[in-house]
Every structure is written in structure tokens, then in C-alpha cells.
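It would be a great kindness if you could assist me with a short task in structural biology. A protein sequence and the C-alpha cells that stand for its backbone fold form the material at issue. I should value your view on which stretches of the chain appear to form regular backbone elements. The record follows directly beneath this note.
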Amino acid sequence: MAATDDAKNAQVARPSESRRDPEWLRQRLDRWLRQHEGSDARVTSVTVPESNGMSSETLLAEASWGGQDHSLVVRVAPQADSDPVFPRYDLDGQFRLIEHVRAHSDVPLPRLWWSETGDAALGAPFFVMDRVDGDVPPDVMPYNFGSWVSEATEEQRAQLMRESVAVLAKVHAVPIPDGDLVAPPVGDESPLRAHVRRLREFYDWATQGRAGSPLIERAFAWVDENLPEVDDNVLTWGDARIGNIMYRDFTPVAVLDWEMAAIGPRELDIAWMIFLHRFFQNLAEMATLDGLPDFLRREDVAAEYLNQTGYQPKNLDFYTAYSALIHAVIMFRIQCRAIHFGHAEEPTDPDELIMHRVTLEAMLAGTYWGQVK
């Protein structure tokens, strides 16, 4: 698949039908802010970035209260008629989890202001946090060509890798929170088994009323047959990729998007960071571009994690394949959403909805990493 196809697919997954009118948002947010901060509070502008996410919506707002101006980010749960990517959005839970991480670590996080659990103000729950200035590795077009990451020096990219792995190490040192901030295992199942169960439940929801993917079904069977024993579980970030980190001078200044956080082995985050880079690297190579083959290499990420924590990552063949399965389920759902909005056609082979099907097939066969240069 060419890189231009990747950009097109990412955009059709964000159909305009799910977007809210900025002026409507400004008026409603302005009214809400005055109720919280007094009659002198104002929201002067709201914009909806073109690079909005594929799950919750991100708004940028300029506001003032108490005699001070504030640049804000508002994360809003998707509207029901937008055919959301996920069946459930617990933004208040994300808000409280970020507060927990802030209280127990120096993970760089934006300052949080409010969590609104009702839908009267904006039509859906939302939370508000400070906007942080910095650079995010782009997904469209992928950062491994034509971006500030690809144009950096090798030394700068090495620093970015070290600093990004340090984020994982810091998150994994945060105490596992009590209560419902992250979904606990059920009964006597292990955290990893619970993770797989929840992924399967998501897939079952995503395939209601439509044909499923034989490849995804085969991958679930492979995971069940190869599930490793785990005796060390931590708080995992979940969507642990550099595209969810904001950098300044190649140093993280904000860690974003906590909706996939869970309890589980630390390899879930380590392998996800490795796999997502390989996903973009494979796209570059299919487009006959060099990409960044020497960046975020599996052995380098594992060695850096060992150096920073004293923990040797284990079973990375399994965890990178499981990461490929997680990504396959998410991309399957996103492409089904594009079909729902009429921006893509239903393929004859459901496996065509998986952009990285060749990679997943090779990982299940145990041949993928031997092909990596």
C-alpha cells in the first residue's frame, strides 16, 4: 500500500459527519465556563484541528478567567451518530488516571482543569487541560519520511528514543491505582488474559452484523496457544507510541491519550512502541522510500529499557505479534466505520480491511523479524 493510500484511509476514518460546529462549541463552552469561573470568564475561540483523533474529539480553545488568559485543549467524547470507534468512552476515568500518574511520577503531563461527566454543555462528556507547545511525530504522512523526525540527526533520534523509553519506565513505576481507573481481571484470570478477553470483546462488538476477519480469528487462536506466563504486572500506558508524545528539543513535554491504559506486563507498552514504528516503516518501504530502518529497532528499545530499569524485556516475538493483532482489530473497526459513512467500499475479502495483513501473517508464521534489515 502506498503512503498516499495510508493518508487517505486515515482521513476517511474521520468523517465530517462526526465534527461539531466551532461557533456552537464556543458558545456552549463559554456558557459552561462562566458557570464554573464566574461572569468574567470568556471563551473567545474554539477550533477543531484537521489532525483530530480517530476516537475522542480534540478541540483547541482560547479562554480567560480570573484576569488570566489560557490556551486549552478540550477532549470530548464522540457523538453517538458519529459511529464511534470504541463502544464506550470513559473520559472522566482518563482524567482521574492522568491525575493519578501526575501524583506518583514525573511523567510530563498537561495541567488538568475540569472533568465534565454530563452531556448538557457540549452534547457529550469532556475534560479540559492546558495546551502544551511542542512537536508531535505525525501519522499522516508518517513521521519516518519528510518530517522533523526523519530530518533530525542520528544523535537527535537516539536521544528521542532514549527519552521515549524513559517515559515507559516512568509509567511502569507508577503504583497500580485502586478502584476502576483501569479494568481489573475477572475471577482468577491473569491481567494478560483479561487484556486478550477485552480485545476479543471489542472485536466481537466491531463485527456485529458483518463478516469478520479470518486472519484476526487465526491470530486470536495463535495468541491463546502462545500466551506466556507473567509474574510482573504494572500500570501500562496502552497507546505507547511516539505519535502520542509531544516533544521539545527531542525531549518529551507531554504524554497524551490514555484510553488504552491497563494492568499488564510491561512488554505490552514496549512491544507497542516497537510495532507501531515497524508499521510506519513497512509503509515507507512499500512506497520505495528509505524511511527510518535504524530508528526504534527492537533490540535497541529492549536494551535501552534494560539499561534504564534493570528489567530485561521477554517474549518480544509474542508481544509484537499481539501488538499487530491489537492494531488489526482497531484498523478493522476504523475501516468498517469508513464503509458506514460511504467513504470506502466493502471488500470481497474482509482481511483487506487490515492494512498490515502481510506483517501480521509473517509474525504469526514466525518469519517477520528474520526479514527485517
Remarks:
- The two ends are 19 Å apart (CA to CA).
- Residues 316-340 form the longest helix (25 residues).
